Amino acid sequence: MSGFKYQPTDYYDQPFHDAYQQGTKHVNDFCFNGKSSSEYVNERMFNLVSNLKDNPFFSLSMHIRMTHDSLTRAVTIDKLISKTLQRLHKNSLLNNTFIALFGDHGIRSGKVRPTFIGQLEERLPMMLMYVPPWFKNKYCSYFKNLRTNARRLTTHFDTHSTLLHLLDLDNNHHGIKTYRQKGISLFKEIPRNRSCQDAHIPSKWCACNFRL
User: Fold this and answer.
1) Residue 88 half-sphere exposure, CB side, CA atoms within 13 Å?
2) Helix residue ranges per DSSP H, 37-123
3) Phi and psi at residue 178, in whole multiples of 5°?
4) Which GO terms describe its cellular component (predicted)?
5) pTM, whole model, 2 decimals?
6) How much helix, strand and coil, in percent to the nearest 5, is found in the chain?
7) 21 vs 12: CA distance, rounded Å
């Protein structure tokens, strides 16, 4: 993959990550100038939210180095993420902000992967979502559906549809189906009997096929 020919965003992290990698001796080095890669990512996120608080924006921040090749190392950034969220809250930067914490896939190497738990973890990455208090009151049905969908079969096609729905919350029909009819907004109730085929999940990655 050759990457982007032109900078695809207003604020682009790639130059930083390139410099970070050049400044570390090995790909598994987690610190640079006394800070972990996750500390830099969180600081960048806080500064971005602070500076753009009066403007609509979308940002994607990734903690790759700390978690990509380790099942247990994620615990080392729990306090860091908690501290950052508390800092955002203390500075009233979450009043008009939606946050999603998620993984794109599970562990792909090591002794855990071939186990039953490892197979499930590979197919069911974490997904957490924060919504501001006013949303719960103004769009109570959407919030109710969001909570219901926490125990329904969903994919990031649905996450994509939800992001589009956020752009036009008062349009009740928006976000029901998007991206070539693959996603359903998480603000709409996902059918209880939704199958992997319905959700466009290939059979290899269907967690419904696993039995204890």
Assistant:
1) 27
2) 37-51, 64-67, 78-90, 116-123
3) -145, 180
4) extracellular space
5) 0.83
6) 40, 5, 50
7) 16
